[in-house]
Amino acid sequence: MKNKYRDLIQQTFHFPQEGFNVIDGELHFNDVPLMNIIKQYGTPLKITYLPKIGQQIQKAKKLFNVAMAKADYKGSYTYCYCTKSSHFSFVMDEAIKNGSHLETSSAYDIPIVKELYRQGKIDKDTFVICNGYKRKPYPQFIVELINSGYKNVIPILDNKNELEYYKRYVKGKKCKLGIRIASEEEPTYDYYTSRLGIRYKEIVPFYKERIKGNKHLELKMLHFFVSAGIKDTIYYWTELAKCLNVYAELKRICPELDSLNIGGGLPIRTSLGFEYDYEYIIEEIVSQIKTFCKQNKIKEPNIFTEFGSFSVGESGAALYSVCDQKQQNDRELWYMIDSSFITTLPDTWAIGQKFILLAVNHWEKESQRVNLGGMTCDGLDYYNTEAHSEQVFLPKIGHGADGPLYIGFFHTGAYQESIAGYGGIQHCLIPAPKHVLIDRDENGEITTKLFAKEQTFKSMLKTLGY
User: Distance between CA atoms of 48 and 96, rounded to whole angstroms?
Assistant: First the structure.
């Protein structure tokens, strides 16, 4: 009977697969030998493989452009990066280098936009799509950009009252606007309609009464997004069709309207068993928009997207060592990691998010079912199910001379640092780990850089007033 960890993975999934392979019993992530990284920096450790960000952006741009060519689609495609997924400068730099424009979600994104311009990384033609509920200073910052010559700043109206600020304070030029549709949510949600945006039936009357004919305002974009993301479901296609009906109705009375923003929502791999036909989904979206516009005798809109997790999620990983094991009863064996899930991967604790979990070494050892426990005294600081299974299997460990077991959670690059409170107070004061950036030079050789040292207890005590 084959019971090695390597056998388990190969029998359960198609393996090796993109981004993951094993050489001499040790895991490589995007062809980076992780044991070398661990030997150099230790654990716990966060890593970001920077080239993956560009690869994801180029993948989406290619898929949309090919779909448009197949459909003879006349509009353009613009890729925007959703900054809230990760605000780190190294992420923004990779996104911009790969031709991405920007989508913001709060007032405090705007100083980042200004700094990127100051550094010469963006110019005043860069699209800046401003989403979110806007109270001061958000609209104030938006107006400052517009009045200082940024040509493609587009505030997306989240509510009707927001409009008055732009009417009053944008000077000497037309203010480009978008309107977000308050889409209906899936039946399983706790509410029927998104709190974000303006109701379908109110959008056209709102445009007629408050925007049409105003020489300082120009409606350019209709924004559509569903919380469940882009999926091949009746629900998604129905919501897209409703959005297109609103677009057509607006287009007939608003000739300057020329863009449809379908938001974010392309999924990332959170399991080695992940299946998603990106090519089919994107071709279907483009085809449906094309067909609808042809039937309604209107020009196809320019398509915008705002991909966040898709851009940065698959670039990240968290590496740990198993520092102890505890047999708590006849069938519950715990592997204790040298950090806390609440500190490093808060989505596993807060919303039950699953990530790809793999052993980094000891692939030739026998596997066994385990539970993973974090270092805090919180009963919820654990991980014991994977996306494809209600259990976790890892190599057996002992007290021999073959060294500790290292494990990795992969595709963790979106949201985890901002939700955990990077640089701030951590649960039970378990420090945030080191963060290492991995890149490749012009010859394709691996380079590493320590972005952040492990958080110190002194920095947390200072924040707490000690």
Answer: 17
